[in-house]
Write a structure and sequence with these properties.
alpha/beta, 13 helices, binds zinc ion, binds pyridoxal-5'-phosphate, four-stranded parallel β-sheet
């Protein structure tokens, strides 16, 4: 198989760079770089039907993935997660056409496996051998798992109050874990300093160009699994926003290849009342989001006070006629029980935030019961036992 990767392009100033040497953010403006593909050629070479016989993981879209040589793919089987019709939860909420895509069954128990699977594979291809990242949750365990599989050295900088599972899963891989007395932003600063000192490559989300390519495969899968249509609405628990902008990128790529039409789901970013920079920026109509002071929520994956891809998230919400809304900690805990008792799915707090938000969006009339709605449960609740207790 052949990847149709062409180059990197800055999402803000448009500068083009090689995808065959290491890059992180745009050297000119500091914003997010995206890998680009020859979509015309890819659309000619690959038919939707060709996918049918491919392995049930995210590398089934190899032509649209950033790794050139298949030998560099580091996989633990991530992706191609099932989409369930959530009939009992849908009846409870008052939304008959409700779907949940369950990312909790990914390797390492969250959809971070997609992004880090892609980033570690591309790092291997580029000859990078030592990785670092700050993480307050699931990203670290995913990074160190794929680094272990690839035989790379890994460093992680984590706030002291991260969920216990996230600390243990990093330690068990033998990675270097440093607990930081502070927030994810402090961990990020220290990770950056160590990267400079020790020559490590920092794979913080959207500060390197390839994690988004793993997460975009959720968009490809939703289309493929729904027979090349898309739901009317997608709700996404938004931290760094890599998944939401990744799906948005996937929809554009698929349309350029002639796989789907121009109709897009309305995209909704869901955040916690204790950390809602994107919701605030959406409501204020600004291009970027101001950092959130004192972020606080048990949903560690969305406890992200500042996102470098804020403008990309906000663009996708606005272009899709979507929106942004917060939920309380109480609502998150209550919907963890609701989803588990009605659907048998022990969703993560971030996932539970979505069904809590859906209740509100229906009640205020932003969404209507005749729309088809998809919730992305981004991880397993089993990784949060200490937080829930
Ligand atoms: C990281 C994470 C998120 C947020 O993902 P982004 O793409 O950074 O917005 C949501 N849920 C869980 C479980 C996570 O680990
Ligand atoms: Zn730029």
């Amino acid at each position: 198989m052949k990847s149709f990767l062409t180059n990197l392009e800055c999402t803000y100033c448009g500068v083009e760079l090689s995808a065959d040497e290491p890059h992180r953010t745009c050297p000119d403006c500091g914003k997010v770089l995206y890998p680009r593909y020859d979509l015309q050629a890819a659309g000619k070479a690959l038919d939707r039907e060709d996918l049918k016989n491919r392995p049930a993981n995210m590398w089934r879209y190899f032509e649209l993935m950033p790794v050139r040589d298949e030998a560099n793919v580091v996989t633990l089987g991530e992706g191609f997660t099932p989409i369930f019709k959530a009939e009992r939860l849908g009846a409870d909420i008052g939304c008959p056409t409700l779907y949940i895509k369950d990312e909790g069954i990914n390797p390492t128990g969250s959809f971070k496996a997609r992004g880090l699977g892609a980033a570690v594979s591309k790092a291997l291809e580029l000859g990078i051998t030592r990785l670092t990242m700050p993480s307050a949750g699931n990203a670290a365990g995913a990074m160190t798992a794929y680094a272990a599989k690839a035989g790379m050295e890994a460093y992680v900088f984590m706030p002291k109050d991260a969920p216990e599972a996230n600390r243990v899963e990093v330690e068990i891989t033998g990675a270097n874990l440093e607990l930081v007395d502070g927030f994810i932003t402090d961990a990020g600063r220290i990770s950056g300093e160590r990267a400079a000192e020790l020559g490590l490559f920092d794979v913080s989300t959207l500060r390197e160009p390839y994690r988004v390519e793993g997460k975009k495969t959720m968009g490809y899968e939703i289309a493929e699994q729904m027979d090349w249509t898309l739901p009317d609405v997608i709700l996404y628990p938004t931290g760094g926003g890599t998944g939401i902008v990744g799906m948005w990128k996937a929809f554009d790529e698929m349309e350029a290849m002639g796989w789907i039409d121009g109709k897009r789901p309305r995209m909704f970013a869901i955040q916690s009342e204790g950390c809602a920079p994107i919701v605030r920026a959406f409501n204020e109509g600004t291009e970027f989001a101001e950092p959130w002071e004192n972020p606080d929520t048990l949903a560690a994956g969305i406890r992200v006070p500042a996102a470098i891809g804020d403008y990309l998230i906000l663009q996708s919400l606005r272009q899709s006629n979507g929106g942004a809304i917060t939920v309380s900690e109480q609502e998150i805990l209550s919907d963890m029980r609701a989803v588990a008792s009605l659907e048998g799915m022990f969703v993560c707090p971030e996932g539970a935030a979505l069904s809590a938000a859906l209740r509100k969006l229906l009640a205020e009339g932003t969404l209507s019961p005749d729309e088809s709605i998809l919730l992305l449960n981004t991880g397993s609740g089993l990784k949060y036992l200490d937080m829930i207790r």
